[in-house]
Amino acid sequence: TGWPILADPLSGVRSDVRSVANFDVLLRHEGFANSHVPQAVLRFGRPPASKVLSMWVKNSGAPVIQVGGPGVIDPDRNVVVHCSADDVDAAIAQGFTGATGSRWAESWRTSWLEVDAIAEQTLSELLLAPELSEPTVARVVADAAPSNARVVVSSSMPVRDLEWFGGRRAAAHSNRGANGIDGVMSTSLGLALTGVPVIAVIGDLAFVHDSNALWGIGAHDVDLRIIVIDNDGGGIFSFLPQASELPSAEFERLFGTPHGTDLCAVAAAHGVEAVSVQDRDELIRELAIPGPRMIRVPSNRRRNVAVHELLVDEVRKAIG
Length: 320
Description:
The chain has helices at 23-26, 30-35, 51-60, 88-92, 108-126, 134-144, 157-165, 184-192, 204-209, 242-245, 248-256, 263-269, 280-287, 301-319; strands at 5-6, 19-20, 41-44, 64-67, 79-83, 150-153, 198-203, 224-230, 273-276, 293-298. The chain is an alpha/beta fold and 320 residues long. The chain has two domains: 5-120, TPP-binding domain (Rossmann fold, 3-Layer(aba) Sandwich); 130-316, Rossmann fold. The protein has a five-stranded parallel β-sheet, with helices on both faces. A three-stranded parallel β-sheet has the order 3-4-5, with no helix packed on it. It has a two-stranded parallel ribbon with strand order 1-2. Helix 5 (108-126) crosses helix 14 (301-319) and helix 6 (134-144) packs across helix 7. The two termini are 28 Å apart.
């Protein structure tokens, strides 16, 4: 069809050569986003986590054709048709085309893939740095997970970081929707009980919230490797306007919600081995050891925002 495939890690098709993996950071480049406004969007299943993508689609005014379910998912009120995969060929045959009048428009899909390759190279080089940032955790998990392992990512920042910075190899399951951070540990354990190695990437609040999933884990032969990103609170709120509009103490009380819990002690209380890691290479080494075990990655919420901004800025510069 010539249509680019903007694939999130939950889709299972991100490694396809026709897929655009870095769509979130690409659409933060104003020139690229404005010159690639769609005339129609085919969306298979649920929307990705990226607000940048959803706002770009909404602001384009393009009709969205939702393929599959569950049900009609239409938070932006722009789904005009809900159909099955068997109906897709008919929708494509309506003759929708890509952007025109821009320096990228010679080939619609090729232009996406070329710029995606620039973003991928830029992010890959930046995320090789020793600093163990939250985006680096996402890239390490995508690249270093054993081929037979399943990855489960928590809602909030883990699923977004894997989507935005995990690269072409990123593939995972996530409990998206109204559940929020509920039950992520239980989901991960349930999947591990099927006999496959499981890597769970989860924030500290979600870990504490569902830590009872570890009750009696020693009685089961499971390979569950839990990476807990510990920024002592709700990291996603540091990206929202209230982080700069509220006094620091009030923001921390209402949104940051630091808890001060010793997460390694929580794991140890359930008989689960726990370690803290400080750099990228150390995480790769620890990730290779079978579970059940917990790997704590300490993080700072303010520094995390700065790292995200730096990565996006460097991709913008590389695109030009």
